[in-house]
Amino acid sequence: MGAELAQTYPVADAVFQEADAVLGRKLRQLCFEGPEADLKQTENTQLAILTCSVAALRVLKECGVVPSAVAGHSLGEYSALVAAGVIDFADALHLVHARASFMADAGKMQQGTMAAILGMETAQLQELCDTAEGVVNIANYNCPGQLVISGEVEAVNHVLELAKAEIGARRCRPLPVSGAFHSPLMAPAQQKFASPLESVAMQPPQVDIAMNVTGEFATEADTIRHLLFQQITRPVQWEKTLRTIEKTGITHFVEVGPGKVLSGLVKRTLPESSALNVEDIETLSLVTDAHGNVGQIADTLQGKGYTVLSMAADISQKADVEALIEKTISHFSQIDILVNNAGITRDMLLMRLKDEDWDAVLQTNLTGTMYCTRAVLRPMIRQKSGRIINISSVIGLVGNAGQASYAAAKAGIIGLTKATAKEVGARGITVNAIAPGFITTDMTAQIPEQSQQQLLELIPLRAFGHPEDVADAVCFLASDAARYITGQILQVDGGMVM
């Protein structure tokens, strides 16, 4: 967790070193090396998430990406406070450490639990909670159709059974938590938290910050302190928070830190907005490209008289792809050329490869390509023309040790290319793929010099390719000169694979 950013950006590593110094323990080593069982302990998890989030935040700032407004969900509110300049990172560590400890103690004093309810109206769920015996309340208003309840075990289970009877068991599930967070059962933790909270110096926010308890912006340090105190026992008004931020005109959201749960909540609440997450080099590149490189390219093209529409989307998500294509067609009336170029890696020997890393690579590299291709087929068929160009890799042709997921995805793209070419050729649509070899990019520049020299020995032309070499191949396949070429794999690899 966080290792990749720390290894690449000294400013990120400095955050982990600061955490070790402040806490007097090896949090950095735990985040990078585990063991995973220790990392999953609540107190460790919360400190790790805070540290990883602030590390990502510092990297984004170094890359020129700074927020206009911030918010954080529950624990994430402390990362948001650091981002807004309300508290410094050291104080955030102390507060999160105390908060986690006090909440764990409260959970042991009185057992509680939480459950997610999907697809039920708020008023309907509130009525179920009101009629239940014991303590149970709505704890998270996450997004339309997604609510979380919290309270005493029997009371939560009772509401859960009532909800199942109305909306089905698949839409109601207990959550694996150690306490009834954001409920009155956390009152003992809240009282203990008052002292450390009062001892921390707070400054007025430097950017807008929307708070969990109200879902509204707070501008005074004393108000923020009071809302943090209340947050321990009060619900998280996340949907209201997002709508408050939307009212300022913000449409691009970046989730900072491990996971992309909040990105999903943004998309469900504000479908016209875009949401990306940053937790490693690959996800960072998506955000910095959307913020900087894509904007610069758009400005350059517009300066030359072209009409440009730039959008950020997560192609691993079907809804994002459909919205992307819909907006493009709405803007330009048609789509003539699709280049599927997005890709990620999670390199690891197969026997050590985590299921989630395999899934992430296949979902983005292969399923994402399928989503985009399928989304443009109907409009291309209507106009009886189109060019689809998929970026595969020579790794998809020959494989590579430690890249089983990447090789499988890129090989899948080759199969997808050939199958689709046969399906739509009669409709005037060509479908081809490019299999680049070793191309110099910011990512490949991180490969050690010795390894680069070994790679050069495998390339007959004794040189690495450049992005322009791939771009030229794309332009050729998109041009009229390639009108009679379909279902082909064009290798741009200096003869590496032949």
TrEMBL record:
Gene3D superfamilies: Malonyl-CoA ACP transacylase, ACP-binding, Malonyl-Coenzyme A Acyl Carrier Protein, domain 2, NAD(P)-binding Rossmann-like Domain
Biological processes per GO annotation: fatty acid biosynthetic process
Keyword match 4Fe-4S: no
Superkingdom of the organism of origin: Eukaryota
Top EC category: transferase
Keyword terms: Acyltransferase, Oxidoreductase, Transferase
Protein name: [acyl-carrier-protein] S-malonyltransferase
Pfam families: adh_short_C2
Organism of derivation: Geodia barretti
InterPro entries: Ac_transferase_dom_sf, Acyl_transferase_dom, Acyl_Trfase/lysoPLipase, Mal-CoA-ACP_Trans/PKS_FabD, Malonyl_CoA-ACP_transAc_FabD, Malonyl_transacylase_ACP-bd, NAD(P)-bd_dom_sf, Sc_DH/Rdtase_CS
Stated family: Belongs to the short-chain dehydrogenases/reductases (SDR) family.
Domain Malonyl-CoA:ACP transacylase (MAT): 1-315
GO MF annotations, alphabetized: [acyl-carrier-protein] S-malonyltransferase activity; oxidoreductase activity
EC number of the protein: 2.3.1.39
Catalysed reaction equations from the record: holo-[ACP] + malonyl-CoA = malonyl-[ACP] + CoA
SMART domains listed in its UniProt record: PKS_AT
Keyword Oxidoreductase found: yes
